[in-house]
Specification:
The chain is an alpha/beta fold. The chain contains 7 helices and 13 strands.
């Protein structure tokens, strides 16, 4: 199988509680809150469909029954939607690496296909989910490829720098914020037992240490919709 020609699948991370968005998230999961006339998650679904992605997994935990009710089977976007229900199956959210591990059979049914991951609570209109980026990643030696953005006021020190070779580095004079979108290989998560609660950052740090974490800068619009104030600003 030529991984460079396989249409990738995608995971939209939507399991979190959204504590900082209360009271809005007491009754509505954060990715289903309205941004400019439609649920935040729909911006991702439309962009993924436009890029040729056909199968999308949404991982859920908090108020998770609302997602199938709101999104249906994905056919309105030309997608097939799968729901990886962490609340039903494990009693709560599994964090990012744990959530990816649980969804892995849906994301990479052959066991080796690269896939997109994007957080359901970021707004990045215009991000292309480019098939050429998938092909380049599939033919590379990288474990993952992250897109970074200039630091927002609420995260002034950023997460990673970018080396001259296009790799993520932990310590750099100029650091950027991970935009919560990237390409990943199944091998990064295949050793995690489904149902394990596990953060992603240690896996990224291990990839940095191995020189296998790519990083690129995204300069288009991006907002971490993490507070009611930021949501209100987008909707003004």
């Amino acid at each position: 199988m030529n991984l460079a020609t396989v249409a990738p699948r995608a995971l939209v991370l939507a399991a979190g509680r959204g504590e900082r968005m209360r009271p809005l998230t007491d009754t509505t999961p954060k990715p289903l809150l309205q941004v400019r006339g439609k649920p935040l998650i729909e911006w991702h679904l439309e962009a993924l469909a436009a890029a040729g992605v056909r199968e999308v997994v949404v991982n859920t935990a908090w108020l998770e029954d609302q997602f199938p009710a709101a999104l249906g089977d994905g056919s309105r976007w030309g997608l097939t939607l799968h729901h990886s229900m962490e609340g039903r199956d494990h009693g709560g959210a599994l964090e990012t690496a744990g959530g990816i591990a649980k969804a892995l059979p849906l994301l990479a049914p052959q066991g080796n296909e690269p896939f997109w991951v994007v957080s359901g609570d970021v707004f990045l209109p215009g991000f292309p989910f480019d098939a050429a980026d998938v092909a380049a990643f599939a033919s590379s030696a990288l474990d993952a490829q992250l897109w970074l953005v200039p630091n927002a006021p609420h995260h002034p020190h950023g997460d990673f720098g970018i080396s001259a070779a296009g790799l993520a580095v932990a310590d750099a004079p100029e650091r950027y914020t991970w935009a919560s979108v990237g390409l990943f290989r199944p091998a990064m998560f295949s050793d995690i037992a489904p149902g394990t609660r596990l953060a992603l950052r240690p896996r990224l740090d291990a990839a940095i240490a191995a020189g296998r974490l790519g990083a690129r800068l995204w300069t288009g619009p991006w907002t971490d919709v993490g507070t009611v104030e930021r949501l209100d600003a987008l909707n003004r």
